[in-house]
Write a structure and sequence with these properties.
The chain is an alpha/beta fold. Helix content is 35%, strand content 21%. The longest helix is centred in the last third of the chain and has 22 residues, at 321-342. Bound molecules: zinc ion.
């Protein structure tokens, strides 16, 4: 039998404007590609996947994930971002060996696949030696999902925070050696733009780095043709952290940038951002927890920027895009209602719909990753990155057949993700990851977890240093 799969008789949310929702339809997959979508395709020479009772959506896209932190789940659960800075670089980042980077990225990416996320923008900002980068990339590749590997220029914190210890790194004795490594790594490891894992560059955060170094990092990324992703405007400070504005004034703001947060971006910065065509990842859960401002979803849309969604640090959040959709949607609605309340009126309409939220978590994410021509909707010719959600699960009973989007966004959870395809390959089937030894993966993560936690305990413990004052 040729490499053809037919998902038959499913409710399909294509998010393709020309195709819309299909109450009962088929998806034909040829190799890695969606060949046809429609009602009763009449195909008989394909491996059959029964879709009855299932809702099929495009694979979710998580546009911001520090996947490497997966061995430290929950550590940051009650932290602010100040706690994170106080503790992370001192106690935790240095605990990681290359093996821990590999394991964190491997199991973290599997966790995303298990929850229906087929594309992640991995923000790998613990590249303290070249081997850390090679290992982290290997972990992503082994997991089998689609990803942008965001090669990080790990910050030298002493530039921005005199309070924090200087970081001497013999592996990267000067900045030129870091740029040279990025160029070599890109050429040797990630030369193709068509592979499942492709390159992104994570420059240092602008306000804690030497400006000339940041400029060199941007220039190198553009010579490599890599997407650029970086945290921006997530710190409230009248004097500093005008990241978008500073890039604009330097002529560096462009449509190949995926900013993260932008919670404290001024209106002028959002206007500049919209004009440039750059994208933004909203990490609503982390922003609300860690004191990083109000999720910018509504303000972005007001200024003509389509948001995408990110989980951010797995050391507090879960790789659950259902939760991220709900959080971003409901806080966006709440913030939009405030204007009505100030005028002593009740709102007439919700500001955003569940379909908006599903688009943030799929096609908008694909666009932010520069891959909207390849994934993000269920469209013939695109890669078959598909998620089948069990509409017959007990928690889904009673869902409205005419509006599957509502059921997906407001009722479903990762436990309802029955089947996942990445580029036509089945990586989850009948609720179980099908392409890996799950028990072996678990053992690897547990061993890494023990190493990292033991190291941290021996070096001051998993607690922020409360008296360390920070200048923001
Ligand atoms: Zn982040």
């Amino acid at each position: 039998m040729p490499d053809r799969k037919l998902i038959r008789g499913a409710t399909i949310v294509t998010l393709d404007p020309a195709l819309g929702d299909i109450a009962s339809g088929d998806i034909l997959v040829q190799g890695s590609v969606i060949e046809a979508v429609g009602t009763d395709l009449g195909v008989t020479d394909a491996e059959l996947i029964d879709g009855s009772g299932f809702i099929v959506v495009p694979g979710f896209v998580n546009t911001h994930l520090h996947t490497w932190q997966h061995a430290l789940r929950g550590v940051c659960a009650d932290w602010t971002v100040k706690d994170y800075v106080r503790c992370w670089r001192i106690h935790l980042g240095p605990a990681y060996r290359p093996l821990d980077m590999l394991t964190g990225n491997y199991v973290g990416a599997l966790d995303s696949l298990n929850a229906g996320t087929t594309l992640i923008v991995d923000y790998c900002h613990n590249v303290v030696t070249p081997d850390h980068a090679y290992a982290a990339l290997e972990g992503l590749r082994e997991a089998g999902g689609r990803a942008l590997f965001g090669l990080g220029y790990t910050p030298v914190l002493s530039h921005g925070f005199a309070e924090l210890p200087s970081v001497e790194n013999p592996h990267f004795p000067d900045h030129a050696s870091r740029v040279a490594f990025a160029n070599r790594f890109a050429a040797e490891e990630l030369p193709s733009r068509d592979a499942l894992v492709t390159l992104a560059i994570v420059p240092q955060e602008i306000e804690i780095a030497e400006w000339d170094d940041v400029v060199a990092e941007f220039r190198s990324a553009r010579e490599l043709g890599a997407r650029i992703t970086l945290h921006a405007n997530q710190v409230l400070s009248p004097q500093r952290w005008h990241d978008v504005d500073r890039l604009h004034r330097a002529g560096l703001l462009d449509d190949d940038i995926l900013f993260v947060h932008c919670t404290f971006s001024s209106d002028d910065e959002l206007r500049l951002l919209a004009e440039s065509g750059a994208s933004v990842s909203v990490a609503a859960e982390t922003e609300m927890q860690m004191g990083m401002g109000f999720p910018a979803t509504g303000r972005l849309l007001e200024h003509g920027v389509s948001p995408s969604l990110g989980v951010d640090i797995t050391s507090n959040s879960s790789a659950d895009m259902f939760a991220q959709m709900r959080l971003a949607l409901q806080v966006g609605r709440m913030l939009a209602d405030e204007a009505h309340y100030r005028e002593l009126r009740m709102p007439e309409d919700v500001a955003f719909t569940t379909r908006d939220a599903l688009e943030w978590a799929t096609i908008n994410g694909a666009r932010a990753a520069g891959l909207d021509g390849i994934v993000g909707t269920i469209t013939p010719g695109k890669q078959a990155d598909l998620v089948m959600i069990d509409g017959d699960a007990f928690n889904m009973l009673g869902w409205n057949r005419r509006s599957p989007t509502e059921a997906v966004v407001l009722h479903a959870h990762p436990g309802n993700v029955d089947t996942v395809l990445v580029g036509g390959r089945v990586v989850k089937r009948h609720g179980v990851l099908a392409h890996v030894d799950v028990l072996a993966a678990r053992r690897r993560l547990e061993a890494s977890h023990k190493w990292v936690n033991d190291w941290a305990e021996a070096n001051g413990g998993l607690i922020p240093q409360p008296r360390l004052e920070l200048s923001f």
